[in-house]
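FIELD: query
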Amino acid sequence: MEGRIATKFLRNNQEITHFELPEGTFAIESEAFALCKNLSDVAGLEKVKIIGVSAFEDTAIKEVKLNAEIEEIADSCFAKCKDLKKISLPSKLKKIGRYAFSGCKSLEEIILPESLESIEESAFECCENLKSIILPEGLKKLGESAFACCQKAERVYLPKGLQYLEAYTFTGCSSLQSLSLPKGCEEIGSACFAFCQNLKEVDLPNQLRKIDKQAFMCCSALKEVNIPNSVTHISHYAFEDCYSLRQVSLSENIKSLGKRVFWGCDNLEILTCPTEEPPQTITSIFDINNQKIKICVNKQSLSLYQATPHWREHSVLAYND
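FIELD: result
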């Protein structure tokens, strides 16, 4: 059809290095240039209004300027473009699809427009050289693994309206050193910040309700955690192997703790638990051999903690002792 580059048009062509789109091209269909591993330049791309799924997946394209009218980037559109260093996103963009830029290992900067509402699953996963992640205030959805394994990302800004952080969103962002979650955030998904090995500080908001399993697992530089009073449950392995962790203050409303929440936190010295009744536990939340840990409770609850399994195995003290 006139004005369209057909599905799988030059797919897997290993000879082409440059392509000039015909005048009047308004659409590039799915996989049109996918696996053209030597294609580094496409002239006229900024005039195209529709780009299909995996259209440029696994090509050598280095720079992309998209049409100002584009509102959605399709799934895997530029996935595995290992040489892609610069991309100009349109000001009307609303959605970035699944795996859209995953594996773009040369991408160092991405400016996301204020119009953006949704970043889907694994959209920027394994963008290893992306140094800063600034999410726009209008963002409503941040998909699972959206920025997983962005190893050089030192800064993350999360917008105020973001209520949920999905599973694995920032897992493996090993250069991230500090983190402040937005006030409206209610839930941290499974392994959301797991293996952020340089994360030293985290500020959890007062509206937070749920910390899911493995949320901060293997954050080996994290030293202190204050759980806000809005949290009633911390899931399995949430802080496992955070071996620099020294001090934890639990919520006044904590009801239960999952399996091995603080297992492997060998340097944990003080856990403050202000609830009158010991939170329910399935198994020990600490290593049984951790003799450093002191559990600080209010004086009226001291005898109850000292008699409750998984608490009595450790040193339980009143606040002022």
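FIELD: remark
Helices lie at 302-307.
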